[in-house]
Amino acid sequence: MAKITYIEHGGMVHVVDVPVDKTVMEGARDNSIPGIEADCGGACACATCHVYVDPNWVERLPPKDPMEEDMLDFAYEPDPIRSRLTCQIRIDDRLDGLVVKMPEKQI
Ligand code: FES
What is the predicted pLDDT for the residue at 94? Predict the structure, then answer.
């Protein structure tokens, strides 16, 4: 279990426990947190699960694979350093305390 903080674009903060082996996207979806749409259900094919990772966490996440890197080009205002697709981040204990912020909109 990892405690993940999701911050909506407007500033509303949601702190939830997400089970290991779920993704950060599933943690938002399963807790009805707005701002992550995940239209493709986690197949890395829509870019509507885009977030900006807190700067303190960027280096601590597993690196992006080429498919995520390509799909991020379709996200709304992606940041080259902080943007990630939450369906591609799988929870493990090392992610306890992760903070992500949603963009103004998803595409
Ligand atoms: Fe579609 Fe992540 S849910 S790319």
Answer: 96
- Of 61, 71, 75, residue with least CA distance to 103: 75
107 found inside a domain: no
In a domain, 106, yes or no: no
32: domain CATH number is 3.10.20.30
Q: Is 71 helix (H, G, I), strand (E, B) or coil?
A: helix
Structure tokens at 30: 């399963």
Residue 104 DSSP one-character state = S
Kindly give the distance from the C-alpha atom of residue 1 to the centroid of ligand 1, in angstroms, as a whole number. 22
CA 44 to ligand 1 centroid distance, Å: 4
Measured distance CA(80)–CA(77) in Å, rounded: 10
Per-residue pLDDT tens over the stretch 49-78: 999 999 999 999 999 999 999 999 999 999
Q: Give the integer Cα–Cα distance in Å for 38 and 2.
A: 20
